[in-house]
Design goal:
The chain is of the alpha/beta class. It contains 21 helices and 15 strands. 1,6-di-O-phosphono-beta-D-fructofuranose (FBP) binds next to loops.
Length: about 550
């Protein structure tokens, strides 16, 4: 047995709060079916691709004394994609609900993500095993992976594993790509009349797996609180020494929900929002000019320090970059078919690529420092995404701002001193010990996944709502995965994927930031949120993110 810290030991004993509607147990749950649904976009293609699971109704649960528990069941669970705090509690909630339904029920965990079910690598959960992981961060209970489920061979192997373990339902805990996997698998298993159900759970620290039904993905709460703590600490340092500009890249592959939430929690001098950059069609030069302007203005009042938040996905939202990266993705998908391409020197690669890009795109590509060019060429993930966590946008911006300042200094328009520190906060928050909110939410999501299984549903995402209320008032149900799908280009081909929810520029969260950012830029309004609190008053320990509070408030007022 490894050593546990005192907090770890105390967290193992925490009893997560179950959504009120589920508290009477699976024996007392009624299923209500809503209206039929349709895909968010590209309805015809999605319907064609998911003919077996398309258009199912949204379901909600209520307490009325119906007994949903059927025969004994074996269930499999997969953790998929990037780690997010609370994943262990989804498994714990699922396990407890299964055992509550029938102590003979079994839960198998597939190792290392979707590849575990393909290769038949698994563990069977027991009380002792689960009890070591309750309310803890990370996905190390069974590991995670990013394998894309799409080939006939992968589906056949998955079926083989399920048959060998008598598995009747699979729960996939993942983000947009992983739940796309869940939907593909649900379709295939239903078309083959296997009777095996697939249920998804909404995970991602990025916060972009949300819609009219899903209020937030799990992990966002803890990750943003962790980054806010770190950034608050850096702000205090900056404000004490008054000598550094901190450029902090924040995780969140596409959407800037993480950056926006952290900006509201800490009030930095600069926070770029990718969605705004795209909407305003800002060029890289314009972004750099904006940052330079704040640096110069602060320097003019003697403030040669500050904090700037840079969203991880920024580069893909700058229109000229977006077009270039999109062509680059197609070109790389082609070039990588030739195994020799991997062995040629980067300089030669840049030449080959430049010849295939349009003149404008080649100009944009070649204007980037070699470091960034090389990072843009790195492998896409198995779902075809550029690995933005490996692109050092914060360093690119620092270099460009420095160049600007040098020019301004020559012209006598800047006399300040610019010393920079670059940071990237991403992995620091993905495995943090879940906040009470994430511990409770995840436990409820897992428990609810079991209720969806018992209700005989497939191709659904576990859904817990009313999240800004105390857990006693939380509601539960399921949302058809096809409702969230659309077609997008991946690896050079159009593929069905769950549509990401980007920051809405006319939404309450961005509006709140927009109304205050000028003040944040010049006055030092830094807020220091401190570490996540697990024990103490509910208004501190159970507080939700500002994003969720503002969005829910706006939804009520509408
Ligand atoms: P998911 O969408 O799978 O939740 O992962 C999101 C994320 O944390 C992004 O914020 C980040 O860009 C990416 O994972 C990093 O991926 P990796 O873990 O493969 O380095």
């Amino acid at each position: 047995m490894r050593d546990f810290s005192p907090l770890h030991k105390a967290r193992l004993k925490y009893s997560p709060k179950l959504a009120g509607i589920l508290q009477k147990g699976i024996k007392n749950t009624k299923v209500t079916y809503g209206e039929k649904t349709s895909a968010v976009k590209d309805k015809e293609e999605i319907q064609k691709l998911f003919s077996e699971v398309y258009g199912e109704p949204i379901v909600s649960f209520s307490e009325t004394g119906e007994n949903l528990i059927g025969d004994r069941k074996n269930v499999g669970v997969i953790l998929s994609g990037g780690q997010a705090p609370g994943g262990h509690n989804v498994i714990a909630g699922l396990y407890d609900a299964l055992k509550e339904s029938n102590p003979e029920n079994k839960l198998y965990g597939f190792l290392g993500g979707p590849s575990g079910i393909i290769d038949g690598k698994y563990v069977e959960f027991t009380d002792e095993f689960i009890d070591q992981y309750r309310n803890t961060g990370g996905f190390d209970i069974i590991g995670s992976g990013r394998t894309k489920l799409e080939t006939e061979e992968q589906f056949e192997k998955t079926l083989h594993t399920c048959k060998s373990l008598n598995i009747e339902a699979i729960v996939i805990i993942g983000g947009d790509d992983s739940n796309t996997n869940a939907c593909m698998l649900a379709q295939w298993l239903k078309a083959k009349e296997t009777g095996i159900q697939v249920i998804g759970c909404p995970k991602t620290i990025d916060g972009d797996l949300k819609n009219s039904q899903i209020e937030i993905s799990f992990g966002f709460d803890t990750a943003t609180k962790t980054y806010s703590e770190l950034i608050g600490n850096i702000m205090r340092d900056a404000n004490s020494a008054k000598k550094y500009w901190h450029f902090i890249k924040l995780m969140g592959r596409s959407a800037t929900h993480v950056g926006l939430e952290v900006a509201l929690q800490t009030q930095p001098n600069i926070a770029l929002i990718s969605e705004e950059v795209e909407a305003k069609k800002q060029s890289l030069k314009e972004i750099v000019d904006y940052i330079t302007d704040v640096v110069v203005k602060r320097a003019s009042i003697g403030k040669n320090f500050g904090v700037a938040l840079i969203p991880e996905g920024l580069i893909e939202f700058i229109p000229e970059m977006k077009t270039m990266i999109s062509s680059l993705n197609d070109i790389l998908a082609e070039l990588e078919k030739n195994p020799e391409f991997a062995n040629i020197q980067n300089e030669k690669k840049y030449e080959v690529i430049s010849e295939k890009l349009t003149r404008n795109e080649a100009f944009v590509f070649n204007s980037l420092p070699d470091l960034i060019k090389a990072q843009l060429l790195m492998d896409r993930d198995p779902h075809g995404n550029v690995q933005v966590s490996r692109i050092e946008t914060e360093k690119l911006l620092i270099e460009m701002v420095k160049k600007n300042l040098k020019e301004l200094a020559k012209e006598g328009k800047y006399t300040g001193k610019f010393s920079e520190q670059a940071h990237f906060f991403g992995y620091e928050g993905r495995c943090a010990m879940p906040s009470n909110f994430d511990a409770d939410y995840c436990y409820s999501l897992g428990y609810n996944a079991c209720v969806l299984i018992m209700a005989g549903l497939t191709g659904y995402l576990s859904c817990i709502k009313n999240l800004t209320e105390p857990a006693d008032k939380w509601l539960a149900g399921g949302v058809p995965l096809t409702m969230m799908m659309n077609m997008e280009k991946r690896h050079g081909k159009m593929k069905p994927v769950i549509q990401k929810a980007l920051v809405e520029l006319d939404g309450p969260v961005f509006k709140e930031f927009e109304a205050n950012r000028e003040k944040y830029a010049m006055d030092d309004c830094y807020v220091f949120p401190g570490a996540i609190q697990y024990f103490g008053p509910a208004e501190v320990c159970d507080a939700t993110t500002l994003t969720l509070q503002l969005e829910q408030k706006a939804a009520v007022t509408c």
